[in-house]
Write a structure and sequence with these properties.
It contains eight helices and 32 strands. By secondary structure, it is of the alpha+beta class. Among the domains are: 232 residues, no CATH class; 68 residues, no CATH class; 76 residues. It has a five-stranded antiparallel β-sheet, with no helix packed on it. The longest helix is centred in the C-terminal third of the chain and has 21 residues.
Amino acid sequence: MDDSAAMRITPPSPDPRVGLGAGLFDAEEAIWNLNKLSSTPPPEAFVGVTNSDLAFKGQYALQGNYNGVMIWDISDPSAPELVTEYVCPASQSDVSVYGDLLFVSGEGTGGRLDCGTQGVQERASADRLRGIRIFNIADIRNPQYVSNVQTCRGSHTHSVLKDPNDDENVYVYVSGSAPVRPEEELPGCSGASPDEDPNSALFRIEVIKVPLANPAAAAIVSSPRIFDNLVAPPQHGASPADAAALEAARARGAFIVEFGGQETALPDRFAAQMLAGFMAERGGGDPAAADSAAFREALPEIIRQRFGAPREEGENAGPAPGPTQCHDITLYPELGLAGGACEGYGLLLDIRDPENPKRMDAVADSNFSYWHSATFSNDGTKVLFTDEWGGGGQPKCRAQDPKEWGANAIFTIGDEGMEFKSYYKLPVPQTSLENCVAHNGSMIPIPGREVMVQSWYQGGISVFDWTDPMNAVEIAFHDRGPVDPNQMGNAGSWSVYWYNGVMVSSEIGRGLDIFELTPSAAISANEIAAAKTVKLEYLNAQGQPRFTWPASFALAGAYLDQLERSNGLSGSRIMAIRSSLGQAESASTAARKRMLLSLATEVSTDAVRASDRGKTSVLAQAISMLAAEM
């Protein structure tokens, strides 16, 4: 927000998010500066199974789930209609769209090429899918499985790149974080270090080229090693709450792993998933005590392969290597940039050559545990990275947890690369029964400002302004109580994205939530109306679009409201300009054009002596654009 105006917003006190009652579909809720339009539970085949990420096409929201994909018609956001439920298990089922194509990530060992629900029991199997599935959704109610591209580490997440200079292909950047699959299952897969095997599946990403005229011919065209010469980043220790929780977990026999250089208890749901994969490699069946003991013994190597755990003593001298993969990559095609959230680093990438992304800069931070995702400002001069401290399954928003841990980090981007400015973390404490940490979100097209909506798992969703990179401020929120009053449950917002006037949230256990902004001291009715003039044909948040605003009275009003909020122009001139805009809007077409041209000239003159010359000049341009439309 302009200068210090954001700091003058007064949040509700006491914060209504504290002390909310628990429940799955009947938890207590708190909301501020938002209107919840709908909450829709998942269909039976997906109840109790993790809902994951979202993509959008036309009037549809496509929601991933570890059991497959749901497609919702959200043309009436107060009553979404489920039009397709496609059962095809494979965690995480992250989704993206382009044209008539749907891309779905598969990483778990139970995913099958035939989308069967019986899983895969064998250690190596020709039936297993780990990579990218491609569907044709020309008939969105009847998706057709076109092809798949198998990768050595599967696809935890992926990002679809439509290069502005290539209309014949799209590219899929794959981030796989699972252990390298057996060579006998997928020839060419190697888990050795690049020093031992230059074709190692570690320390790289995959780039898939998808010919739009023949998507069945999609294939890996490069495996860029964007992590070259990075070393293990600094790490923080355990918080006091974590240290106590670790000892309690150890006492009850939980699986303890070393992650990021420190011990942590493996969350129960992750332990169950990993144990199931371990059993599949041993021939299947339910785990006996001996199997659990063997799994416990094997865990250090499993974690080492998956997350690049520190080397054992006695290995080659020198610093430990850096990340072996990215968790997520946000592509900004119009600027030729990408932000890679890559375990222990945030990367800035040049993607002007889609098949050969190049690292421009890399930053590490001892306050960050696991760099998770990235979001650019609309003009590309700033980038925000999230930290998924605790892997998303742990409570990291407790009152005693440091505000710099499990937060967002905001950087400016200049000729010298990225420069750290500040942190932003959900400003209200959550309980020890709520997994809470920074997760997925997107920009909201409020003109002239950086406003973002973001998921925090069971911390709910937070809308905040980071126009001033030194002072990010919350301006709206929604939250529910814990899913279970006695233990950690599987729920909360996985991702929330702005799309054509509404904010759609994938609720891990509860289904689909849709919200809209309401006018407040933080966001005016004009700013909301101007945001709604931005219409997208599709959206993948990991393929960030550049917002442009058509000429409208709302756009001019939005800039005028911002000048009033920041005292960027005298009160008398603001009143006069507002009156003139109102008169022009009511005038006939010819008179309107004449009045707007005169007003644009006046406001250009105002800019010379305004305390906020830049914003006043932008207002003059918006009025000129409006006159040109007449």
